[in-house]
Inverse folding.
């Protein structure tokens, strides 16, 4: 709630006006997050199913604010509760057990000062927060070099994946010579997350829950770690070497992997065509995305449409190899050597916002009065800026 109090009036008015779009609709949004409700129901129905939840997201479960002056020479970084959509959706589940762990990225305060992680004020502030007892769960940081993070976050996540998943392809901004490098760094960050998750010593009794389009390949790398662990175990038990493949499958203690996409999944054929002139191995990024997501045991989408598009692409790439079944509104896809042995379970779990926070702000007198004066406002891309403009132009253009 504190977050909203600091927003400028015009921003609050904008939120007030789009509020019905955010919570409305047949599938997106509900009086209570369906994702939260489903997760809590499953959790309480079988409290012994998972010992821990190890959650991974690009963003931390709190808001970091740097000091305005000489922040490198002080330890004044502020840490406050986050009211972002991702935290709103998953925090009720993750904070239900103090043994749960949240894995997130962090960069140094300022690389120009060449501080070590132990000397860095931002990292020191996070460590202080971790040891203060204010968090209801464990915190685990993935330290990423700033240059790598820029290519991972701005280059790949924001300039390619976000507009691609929203089917706003004109917003994709990448040069051919840059593409190989930013995809490489994106994968490296995903690999760092996978390694950090393994440091939490997950077992078959834990649930590893990966969040959003920043971390599409984490599941794939965790599966590779599974195989490596099995091979190491195989070497220690030489008497099973004769039946190598069979023992590998038996020895492998599988991770339970879940993935939830907080954006639409609206990849189109045009996205593939956007990269047709790139090097051969990167020509079909869409297939890499589908393959990476299929490595999870469970994948959650916001709408049936998003899930249907994903299934369509999976069928396109794997055709006769794909086996599809439906059980209790869950689509189960099995592809040998691609999905887990029991298949990849695709579900639909719409996530919403903290409705009480928005309604209390919308009812403020100053917001209501300012809203009445507002006549012209630019809408965000996801609310149909382009289509709305075209429709208005068509409406006011004289017909011959």
């Amino acid at each position: 709630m504190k977050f909203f109090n600091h927003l400028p009036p015009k921003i609050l008015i904008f939120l007030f006006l789009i509020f019905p779009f955010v919570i409305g609709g047949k599938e997106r949004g509900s009086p209570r997050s369906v994702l939260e409700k489903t997760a809590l129901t499953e959790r309480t129905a079988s409290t012994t199913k998972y010992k821990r939840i190890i959650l991974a997201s690009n963003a931390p479960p709190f808001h970091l604010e740097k000091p305005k002056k000489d922040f490198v020479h002080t330890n004044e970084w502020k840490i406050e509760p986050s009211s972002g959509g991702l935290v709103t959706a998953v925090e009720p589940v993750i904070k239900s057990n103090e043994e749960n762990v949240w894995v997130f990225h962090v960069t140094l305060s300022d690389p120009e000062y060449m501080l070590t992680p132990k000397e860095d004020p931002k990292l020191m502030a996070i460590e202080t927060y971790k040891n203060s007892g204010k968090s209801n769960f464990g915190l685990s940081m993935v330290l990423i070099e700033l240059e790598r993070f820029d290519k991972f976050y701005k280059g790949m996540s924001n300039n390619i994946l976000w507009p691609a998943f929203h089917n706003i392809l004109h917003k994709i901004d990448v040069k051919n010579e840059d593409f190989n490098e930013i995809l490489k760094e994106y994968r490296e960050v995903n690999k760092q997350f996978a390694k950090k998750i393994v440091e939490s010593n997950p077992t078959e009794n834990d649930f590893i829950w990966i969040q959003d389009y920043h971390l599409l390949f984490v599941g794939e790398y965790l599966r590779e770690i599974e195989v490596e662990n099995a091979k190491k175990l195989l070497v220690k038990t030489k008497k099973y070497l004769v039946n190598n493949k069979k023992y590998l499958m038996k020895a492998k203690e599988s991770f339970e992997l879940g993935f939830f996409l907080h954006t639409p999944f609206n990849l189109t054929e045009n996205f593939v065509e956007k990269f047709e002139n790139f090097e051969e191995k990167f020509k079909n990024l869409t297939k890499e995305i589908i393959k990476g997501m299929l490595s999870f045991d469970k994948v959650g989408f916001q709408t049936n449409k998003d899930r249907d598009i994903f299934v369509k692409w999976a069928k396109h790439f794997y055709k006769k190899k794909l086996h599809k079944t439906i059980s209790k509104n869950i689509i189960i896809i099995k592809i040998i050597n691609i999905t887990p042995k029991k298949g990849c379970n695709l579900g639909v779990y719409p996530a919403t916002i903290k409705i009480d926070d928005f309604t209390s702000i919308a009812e403020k007198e100053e917001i209501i009065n300012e809203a009445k004066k507002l006549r012209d406002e630019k809408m965000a891309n996801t609310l149909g800026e382009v289509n709305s403009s075209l429709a208005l132009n068509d409406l006011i253009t004289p017909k011959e």
Summary: The chain has two domains: 1-27+356-383, 33-351.
